[in-house]
Design a protein that fits this description.
By secondary structure, this protein is of the alpha/beta class. The chain is built from three helices and eight strands.
């Protein structure tokens, strides 16, 4: 079994996915507009150039996305998209780009479990966590010391 995140946008999925492809070194492998879909006649004419379904592949993962019609769109809430990287410098790079023109919820820095961790909401309203974890044995040792 595999899970993936499906993100919804308020009419700017194409722009967001192009930006994410640059940030993560990914490839948009599929993108279909409402006008290209069997749903073309079921959406407003001005919405036919919006994305009905898109997929962005990067590394070993992928994300999906769409621009739901305005009466179905809801802002992201109750989750964060987690980006896990192996180097602190890469975590800082990704975090700084995602946070630009967005909102920082927790600055990127060292924590007891991570060499770098930060939380932000990007300019498209998508909440992100960027994590560069410490080796699990170091995290366990830190927790034991803290517990006394």
């Amino acid at each position: 079994m595999q899970t993936s995140t499906h993100l919804t946008f308020n009419g700017n999925c194409r722009e967001a996915f192009k930006w994410y492809a640059e940030i993560f070194g990914g490839t948009i492998v599929f993108a279909m507009t409402y006008g290209e879909s069997p749903m073309a006649t079921q959406v407003a004419v001005d919405w036919r150039d919006k994305i009905a379904h898109a997929r962005l592949d990067f590394g070993r993962g992928y994300i999906l996305g769409a621009d739901p019609p305005p009466n179905y769109y809801r802002a992201a809430a109750g989750f964060d998209v987690m980006v896990a990287v192996s180097e602190p410098e890469e975590a800082e790079r990704i975090f700084n780009i995602l946070a630009r023109d967005g909102t920082i919820r927790m600055p990127c820095g060292e924590t007891f479990w991570a060499r770098r961790f930060g939380m932000c909401v990007d300019r498209f309203g998508i909440p992100w966590m960027v994590n560069c974890e410490k080796p699990l044995d170091a995290v366990a040792a830190s927790a034991r010391r803290a517990a006394g």
